Amino acid sequence: MKRLLRQRPRLQRRLMLTSLVIITLTSLALAEALNQQKAKDLHVTQTNDLLARLPSIAAELRLEGMLPQHILTDTPVPVQDESGYLLITCTNNLRDHYSSSEAAKRLGLQDSCERVRQLGQQNNGPDVVSLADGKSYSVVVVPLTINQQEFEILVLSDAEDVQQQLATSYRQTYVRVGLFIPLSGLLLVGASFWGLRPLRQLSDEVRNIIKGKSSKVSEDYPVELSNVASALNELLSKEKHQRQTYQDAMKDLAHSLKTRLAATNAIMDEPGIEQKERNQQMLAQLNQMDQIIQYQLRRAMVGRQGLTREHTPIHEVTDKLTTMLSKVYMEKRINAQLNIPEEVMFPGNRDDLMEMLGNLLENAYRFAISTVVVHASLNEHDGLTLIVEDDGPGIEPELRQAVLQRGVRADRRNPGQGIGLAVVNDIVSSYQGDIEITDSELEGAKIKISFKSA
């Protein structure tokens, strides 16, 4: 049993002990109240019996000369019908003994007035008093006023039967309480296991999540725990999203640096340029790498929507990218055509535009045979439109939506990770834009991106 108690959850043990203490204290208080009520009931019974026997008591008082004759009833009362009570008359507020019945005199109870008075001061009126003969008596004090003189009649009866009844009643009450408390403890154990079962279920589900057996907790819980389960699932979802964001950012970083490293190698191998110019071009690539690293780290921390929005010239960024890619794919001698007015601006961050166009142009240069064309236009109704197309093999219609997801590639014959278009799709979505893949008039792929006017 001790081992089981040690294995119980602390919350369950606390609830059980607290409830058991409350039940025990309440039961004891109720038992004491029942005992007091039983004593009062017996006292009321004795008082009613006394009232029923008042004629016999009055006859004894008259026959034994304990009170003046003229206050008693003229109705004759049979002497042989004794009341069964001991009678004592007191005066001066129970301080002085006035007279006693013959039975009380034989027992030597002449000091009863003082005893009753002292116990009455201590207990606010004694029900049971121990007198000179060593016995306990139930006492009822009957006040009388005769010829402007006050008397107190003590009506005494043997309290042995009353005390036995009370003792029996007390034992029965405490036995019932003693049986009720363990039974309540057993009911508490069952109720605690049943009531705390949802908490144990939640604990098991969280443990399964930690072990990787599940990804969220069920929401089939009582009302008190349903909000906890929902909040926990939301926290798990946010944590998963944040972890995925970090993973995507690292993959995007590696994908972006790949092109810059290829451009750096092309610059190092490019013949016919002076060392000073070569160093300047390599330094420019290193600066772009640093910007990409800072951009990807910032995106991993705050997401795309947290980046500062501005207006970036599209022609300038596109020109730099095509210059770099022309060095990477020098052997293909790609003809890059830029139909981009100088005044057309991208309504967003420069790093976002660089990442988006960099991936689109890198794909176009890789698959193009000889030509890559970039269009950009802006009007009040349709907003900004960007189009990148090439004369390569194009993208099959059934793959045009799939290639916008991470890890999906349109051409499995060439090396790649299937990240470029997914990054483009993420950036376009962050600006509430639309992306569409169709066939180009150049017989290759045509990727159209639209941004609505602000």
TrEMBL record:
Catalysis performed (reactions): ATP + protein L-histidine = ADP + protein N-phospho-L-histidine
Any GO CC annotation of this UniProt entry: plasma membrane
Domain Histidine kinase: 252-454
Enzyme Commission no: 2.7.13.3
Residue intervals of the HAMP domain: 193-244
Keyword Nucleotide-binding: yes
UniProt GO molecular function: ATP binding; protein histidine kinase activity
Residues spanning the membrane: 174-196
Matching PROSITE patterns: HAMP (PS50885), HIS_KIN (PS50109)
Main location: membrane
GO annotation (BP), single: phosphorelay signal transduction system
UniProt keyword terms in alphabetical order: ATP-binding, Kinase, Membrane, Nucleotide-binding, Phosphoprotein, Transferase, Transmembrane, Transmembrane helix, Two-component regulatory system
SUPFAM superfamilies reported in the protein's UniProt record: ATPase domain of HSP90 chaperone/DNA topoisomerase II/histidine kinase
Tagged with keyword Membrane: yes
Protein localization: Membrane
Pfam families named among the record's database cross-references: HATPase_c (PF02518)
Protein name as it appears in the record: histidine kinase
Organism (species): Ferrimonas aestuarii
Organism lineage string: Bacteria, Pseudomonadati, Pseudomonadota, Gammaproteobacteria, Alteromonadales
